[in-house]
Design brief:
794 residues, alpha+beta, 4 domains, six-stranded mixed β-barrel, 22 strands, cell membrane, transmembrane, ABC3_permease_C, Macrolide_Exporter_MacB
Length: 794
């Protein structure tokens, strides 16, 4: 029986080649896009699940409540997890990470800067799963001065030779012995690293509760009560921290984040992760693309019902049961879907490399034959085949044979259902078009917004260590003497990545008050080099030598926070006053107020900032002119080598750092745009097929109208107005949905563009134009045809 169904299905496909091609093409595009999007979604959901104990691992995050502000930090104090391990029996182990950032390693004559270097506890490989190529995970980081490298870093220094037991040096006095090599950290991890140093050898492994600079993770025993642990955090604060923070009006508590939820659900201060919203969005796009392709099939199948009415009537007269007819039509639908699936698998394999480039993923070909992906493919066949074939199957099998064979058959209800499907298609397409437009508006807004400083033609050089003041001054003099270099300055961090907060004692209307501010250390050329504006007071100057000890700059956000009407001269103690009052920190005065600038990306609000004056700092900023950029860079590199012969010259442009902050959203925007365009293409394919069928059904009517004097334009208008009306019906459906979706999406941005009415108008006009271009070919073809041919049989 199944064989007969397949033979008949294949014959019907060959018989109507045009409509079969439209259906297969639409379904192939829909299934291909659906599979690629589901690969993306699957990858997003897989973050951190490669760790064997991922279900038991939790990150601790800090919630710091100040009198006028709440901070949510990913960092904690060093002794926190050690204390939890001691006080709670269901804490099995813990691990802490301290970021060392960018470090220059040397081995013999080889010198390389490596990013993402962390100091960590020796328990790291008990908690997290990493495959060792060399070394023993149980003892790899037990000893001070030990380091574990990733495979990529080990190959860079040692090639194919064994790295175990080799020594890497960071400067003339610090060395690390390689005690292990692991495979590179999978990209689907919420944080990655290139090397891990023993935290035992790090002096920052202190027991004080005042500093938040360690990322902490707990490994809990199976079936541990998370709520019980979190309920104990207030007591923890009272026991260990209240004496230090309560007098400042600061309260601290903690939350536990499941490891596998961090990438998609964590939005803490200064953190850049994925977004569960995009997972939902891309899943919905995949679903709607399959749905639109299915609607095409239903539309064309029901539109052609008159052609197949006699077939159904004859088969019923010959004894065919309704169930057998339904099975036949569903077989045709599944066959078309199977052909589309095979075509889609070939396209997915061919496009995977390009898709990885566009999406920033590293999805391997092996995933295309994984049970999970094959199950997805099977599910698509079942869903698309049954959904797209269900209505035509039940509709066509319900024809009355007597009515059909007498020639009095009319497809009741068919037209209304087809129109509803077309409205649904274009409503979905219009929603995606509007959303794509607004997404790009927001991305362009963030890219073009004034950051409060000039990032063009500014390069940053990370010195990595304490500079000699004399050497830096010598380098700076050599640089600014070059006519192609406008200025040079130094700071403690790049202008676009000022992180962390420190407690300062600040003058307020009620006396000196301890509050947290972001600090940065700069020299007297920094404000000028970065193109910042002094809105009150003055900049740091070498004409005021006392600035190095008792002068600070603040930003407008700090003035607003302190509610200062006259900020110049206000006192700021560079630290906290000890409880015993002895050895207080030095006191400085505000000498100037800087116009607010963004210390991080536009995903983070501007925070109160204190700028401290020091003459030589680890990060050098150089503002160069646009003329002869290559020659200027070569000059800077030459002078760098003369002044710092033991340091590599590596630089990056500030605008590149800026662009990288929005790279993930740029990629997501490209994905969304591409699939939105393909969604509209699928809808247009269906509309084209439907327009073709409609003109075929009305060919004699068109012939009569032309014989009676009807013009080409009137015929084109006649055939186009029905489709125009359907597209117009989609506008009031799509616009509220798109507005609500984008309004919710924009709420997550501290700085956002507005939703402009012209976007909706332009999107509606574009949709109408696309509709007209789709149907006008068939309309013109019918209008220009010779009426004699269409009326010859009358």
């Amino acid at each position: 029986m199944l064989k007969n169904y397949l033979i008949l299905a294949f014959r019907n496909l060959v018989k109507d080649k045009f409509y079969s091609l439209i259906n297969i093409l639409g379904l192939t595009i829909g299934v291909t896009c659906g599979m690629l999007l589901l690969l993306y979604v699957t990858d997003e959901l897989s973050y951190d699940r490669h760790h064997e104990k991922s279900a038991q691992i939790y990150r601790i995050v800090s919630y710091i409540t100040e009198p006028d502000k709440i901070n949510n930090w990913v960092s904690t104090q060093p002794p926190l997890v050690k204390t939890l391990k001691q006080d709670y029996p269901f804490v099995e182990s813990y691990v802490r990470f301290f970021g060392n950032g960018r470090v220059m390693f040397r081995q013999g004559e080889k010198r390389f800067y490596e990013e993402d270097i962390y100091a960590t506890d020796s328990t790291v490989f008990d908690v997290f799963t990493h495959k060792f190529i060399e070394g023993d995970p149980k003892i790899a980081l037990d000893e001070p001065g030990s380091i574990v490298l990733t495979q990529k870093v080990a190959a860079r220094f040692f090639g194919k030779n064994s790295a175990l037991g080799q020594v890497l040096r960071t400067d003339d006095t610090t060395s690390y012995k390689v005690t292990g090599v692991i495979t590179d950290v999978p990209k689907n991890s919420h944080f990655t690293f290139n090397a891990l140093m023993s935290l035992n050898s790090d002096q920052r492994n202190a027991d004080g509760w005042g500093g938040f600079y360690i990322n902490s993770y707990l490994l809990l025993k199976k079936n541990a009560d998370i709520k019980q642990l979190e309920a104990g955090f207030p007591q923890l604060y009272e026991k260990y921290m209240s004496s230090l923070f309560k007098r400042m009006g600061i309260h601290i508590t903690y939350r536990l984040q499941p490891l596998t939820s961090i990438h998609l659900h964590s939005k803490l201060d200064g953190e850049t992760n994925g977004d569960i919203g995009y997972v939902y969005t891309f899943s919905a796009v995949a679903f709607f693309m399959l749905l639109i392709a299915s609607i095409n099939y239903m539309n064309l199948a029901t539109a052609q019902s008159a052609k197949r009415a006699k077939e159904v009537g004859l088969r019923k007269v010959m004894g065919s049961l309704k169930g057998a007819l339904i099975a036949q039509f569903l077989t045709e639908s599944v066959l078309i879907t199977m052909i589309s699936l095979v075509s889609s698998l070939i396209l997915v394999a061919a496009l995977l490399s390009f898709f990885n480039t566009v999406s920033g993923k590293e999805i391997g070909y092996i995933q295309l034959i994984s049970p999970q992906f094959l199950l997805i493919g099977f599910s698509i066949v079942v869903f698309t085949g049954l959904v797209s074939g269900s209505y035509p199957a039940f509709y066509l099998s319900a024809f009355e044979p007597a009515e059909v064979l007498k020639g009095s058959f009319k497809a009741r209800g068919n037209s209304f259902f087809r129109k509803a499907l077309v409205v649904a298609q274009f409503s979905i397409s219009l929603v995606m078009l509007i959303c794509t437009w607004i997404v790009y508006q927001q991305l362009n807004y963030m890219r073009d917004k004034d950051m409060g400083y000039d990032r063009d033609q500014v390069l940053t050089i990370d010195y990595q260590g304490n500079q000699s003041k004399d050497k830096y001054n010598a380098l700076r003099k050599l640089l600014v003497d070059n006519p192609n270099i406008q200025s040079a300055a130094s700071a403690s961090s790049p202008v676009s990545n000022i992180g962390g907060r420190v407690i300062f004692t600040v003058e307020s209307s009620t006396g000196m008050k301890e509050m947290a501010f972001k600090p940065t250390v700069i020299d007297h050329d920094y404000v000028k080099t970065m193109g910042m504006k002094v809105v009150q007071g003055r900049d740091f100057s070498e004409d005021f030598p006392a600035d190095t000890s008792n002068g600070v700059l603040i930003n407008e956000a700090a003035v607003k926070r302190m509610n200062w009407k006259e900020p110049i001269g206000k006192k700021i103690m560079l630290g906290t006053v000890p409880p015993d009052g002895k050895n207080p920190p030095p006191t400085a005065q505000v000498v100037g107020v800087i116009k607010d600038f963004h210390q991080q990306s536009l995903y983070n609000p501007i925070e109160p900032l204190i700028m401290i004056y020091r003459r030589a700092n680890p990060v050098i900023h150089v503002k160069i002119k646009t003329q002869n950029t290559a020659g200027t860079l070569a000059f800077i590199g030459q002078k760098w080598s003369e002044i710092y012969p033991d340091r590599l010259f590596e630089y990056r442009f500030l605008d590149q750092d800026f662009e990288s902050a929005y790279h993930a959203d740029e990629l997501r925007g490209k994905i969304f745009t591409s699939f939105s365009a393909l969604t509209i293409l699928i809808a247009c394919l269906g509309l084209f097929g439907l327009a073709t069928f409609t003109t075929e059904q009305r060919v004699k009517e068109i012939g009569v109208r032309k014989v009676l004097g009807g013009s080409v334009s009137s015929v084109v208008l006649l055939l186009s107005k029905d489709f125009t009306r359907l597209v117009l019906f989609s506008f009031p459906i799509a616009i509220p949905i798109a507005w609500y979706s984008m309004h919710r999406w924009l709420e997550s941005f501290p700085y956002k563009t507005g939703i402009q009415p012209w976007v909706f108008i332009a999107a509606c006009i574009l949709t109408l134009v696309i509709c007209w271009l789709t149907v006008i070919y068939q309309s013109l073809k019918a209008a220009l045809a010779n009426p004699v041919k269409s009326l010859r049989s009358e």
